[in-house]
Amino acid sequence: MLKEGFHDIDYNDVWERSVGIGVLGYGFMGKVHSNAYLKIPSVYETVTAFPELFAMCGRNREKVEGTAVRFGYKGYYTNWRRLVEDPEVEIVDNCTPDNLHCEPSIAAARNGKHIICEKPLSMTVGEARSMVEAVQEAGVKHMCCYNYRFVPAVRLAKRIIDRGLLGRIYQFRACYLQEVGHDPEEVVENVWYTSGTRSGVLLGIGCHIIDMARFLVGEIVTVSGMLKTFNKKRKSSSGGLEDVVADEANIALVEFEGGALGTLESSGVSSGRKNRHTWEINGSKGSIAFDLEDLNHLHVHLPDFSAEGVEGFTNVSATGITYSPGTVILPPGHNAGWEYGHVHALAHFLDCVVNNKPVEPLGASFEDGYRVQVIMEAIAESSRTGDRITIKY
User: Fold this and answer.
1) What's the angle, vertex CA 354, arms to CA 353 and CA 358, rounded to 5?
2) At 23, phi and psi to the nearest 5?
């Protein structure tokens, strides 16, 4: 039945092209990335291509089908090899558990797919190096999804540093704290870093602040670290007792190429902390500080630009800046949420694929992911030996 005044939209005319997206994994990150792709066309008024949610993949048919339906995918696979071979998939987005990052990503590259892989890039340095070699040989675009690079306040911090407004950087201190494992009686299945892949806190969230350190301050050249497992055994939901092999907290002292010192701390046993990610940078001309729980603001102390008699940090809103993603369609003062980091990260990668732009320096390439992996293994080695370790790539 025709409706008076109703105009059909031919989406083939609206979009110059679409890009088929294949997401591996239907868990937390699979949902977060799917949500980001859906939001890109509505958050950005001008998008160079439409991210078409073509296929999701997971081993549990019922769960992957349910998630794929909710997000509007055209279909799903239960075998990741079929997805990375599908000619309608142009971008493979690997949101699988950490131990499944390597093989599917390499296979995707060999099938000519552009690849996004969740952090950490892999479980080991060897795996990470093989992933870098695979994407370089295939000539495909690649990005390790360190989403906090795309938070507007972080991009404001990057601009301040690149303009030299902090002067010579002296110190960087960062922490990433969660409480999930603080209770010794919590069953192992409910403690993410001790169950499943048993990746540990350093690989799970410590990698974020290592990437942030490199992104903002520069290369790390030496590390001294300590990893600790406080609860060496945990009950399982079945009533048994399991060994805990993953680290629950870690601290590292690092030296940067430019001479700055840094401290990096991540923990899964910090009672009361749900997802505390903070850092501060001190320089000869000023300081800046960031708190993920207040991700729309950057705390800035620049004495040379302060009004006379006004000292200390200023709480600067990053929602209205024009040179970073910001909140895009929202006016200044309308705050972005945590998911905006992924929206901006995936929009960046989509633009790089469609317009053949470099992923770096704003995005983290597989090479960046590999370097974070090297640093994490050096911290672990330092903890085992008690030695200060020089970073070698």
Assistant:
1) 45
2) -105, 125
State the total domains in the chain.
2
Residue 375 inside a domain? The answer is no
CB 220 within 8 A of CB 214: yes
Q: Which amino acid is at 286?
A: G
Give residue-wise pLDDT tens across range 36-94: 999 999 888 877 799 999 999 999 999 999 999 999 999 999 999 999 999 999 999 99
> Does residue 82 contact residue 76 with C-beta atoms inside 8 Å?
no
Per-position DSSP letters for 118-130, written without gaps between them: ESSS-SSHHHHHH
Give the residues of the chain that fall short of pLDDT 70: 1-2, 307-310, 321-329
Radius of gyration of the chain (CA): 22
Single-letter code of the amino acid located at 161: I
Residue 348 lies in a domain: no
Q: State the Cα–Cα distance between residues 318 and 145, nearest whole angstrom.
A: 22
CA 83 to chain centre: 23
Q: Which two tokens stand for residue 239?
A: 């009533």
- Domain hosting 240: range is 152-294+296-336
> What are the structure tokens assigned to 183, written together?
């209770």
Cα 198 to Cα 248: distance, rounded to the nearest angstrom = 11
Longest dimension (CA), the chain: 78
**261-267 and 169-177 beta bridge pairing:** parallel
One domain, residues 204 and 323:
yes
Among the three residues 106, 122, 146, which one is the final residue of a domain in this structure? 146
The enclosing domain of 184 has a CATH number of 3.30.360.10
Q: Is residue 168 domain-shared with residue 285, that is, in the same domain?
A: yes
Where do we find the tokens 């369609």? 329
Strands 297-301 and 314-317, by their bridges, are antiparallel
Q: What is the rounded CA–CA span in Å between residue 58 and residue 200?
A: 23
| Distance of alpha carbon 66 from alpha carbon 76, whole angstroms | 10
Query: What pLDDT does residue 377 have?
Result: 98
SS3 letters for 159-173? HHHHCCCCCCEEEEE
The pTM score is 0.94
